[in-house]
Specification:
Distance between the termini: 44 Å
Strand content: under 5%
Shape: elongated
Radius of gyration: 19 Å
Low-confidence stretches: none
Mean pLDDT: 79
Helix content: 40-55%
Oligomer: single chain
Structural class: mainly alpha
C-alpha cells in the first residue's frame, strides 16, 4: 500500500491566471494601501496611505503589488 495520497485525487489544479494578478485595476482604499505595504492598519498608517494616494494616484498600488 502506498503511504502517499494520489495528488490528482486531491483536486490540485493550476491557479487560474485571473487569480494570480493583484494590480490596481479596480478601486482601492487607504486601508488597501496600508495592507499591501505590510503595515498595520492604524490612524498613522492610514494618514500615510491617504497622502501617498493623493501624490501618486493608482501608481501607489502598482508600486506595492505585482
Amino acid at each position: 500500500m502506498n503511504a502517499e495520497p494520489d495528488k490528482t485525487s486531491l483536486g490540485e489544479r493550476p491557479t487560474p491566471d485571473k487569480l494570480l494578478h493583484a494590480g490596481s485595476e479596480g478601486e482601492f482604499t487607504a486601508e488597501d494601501v496600508v495592507l499591501a505595504s505590510g503595515r498595520d492598519v492604524n490612524p498613522k498608517n492610514l494618514a500615510w496611505a491617504e497622502r501617498r494616494m493623493a501624490e501618486k494616484g493608482r501608481a501607489c498600488m502598482d508600486e506595492l503589488l505585482p
